Amino acid sequence: MRYGQIRQYDVANGPGIRTSIFVTGCRHHCPDCFNLDYQDFQAGDPWTDQETRTLLSYLQDDLVQGLTILGGEPFEHCQALSRLLEEIKQEVDKEIWIYSGFLYEDLVQDPQARTLLSLCHVLVDGPFIREKKDLSLRFRGSSNQRIIDLKKSLGSSEIFLWEEE
Known about the structure:
Elements: E1 2-10, E2 18-23, E3 45-46, H1 49-59, E4 66-71, H2 78-91, E5 95-99, H3 104-107, H4 111-118, E6 122-125, E7 146-149, H5 150-153
Parallel strand pairs: 2-4, 4-5, 5-6
Antiparallel strand pairs: 1-2, 1-3, 6-7
Helix pairs in contact: 2-4
């Protein structure tokens, strides 16, 4: 897995102060993508144990409410991210958000994607659609995208949207 950046403090991609990982590689190629450079699978740097240690140190900060994974397309890296999240969960207990251009209904059909989903709390799903762009939306770029409560949805035949507490 490659990544473009790790943000120690991010307030745009989920509630509160978060640490964010931007993975690289995406086949969606959404028009007007805000992370065009991260569509390239060769962009950024390889993820190593050093990045894991750095990420863990950021997440151990009491100011940081959680972790957000976006990119690129995180679900292009299911196995690597699942291993990373399992390691993180052994050290810290923080809420994990993940973004995807794929729809939840498709992700849950794939065993590797479902494993990754099960390690997260919230999924922001769906491709960015230029015609549905809405700058007033929190934590998403277009009105077709949903913020899904994974802990409720994965155990049900329904999709439960995240409700801010």
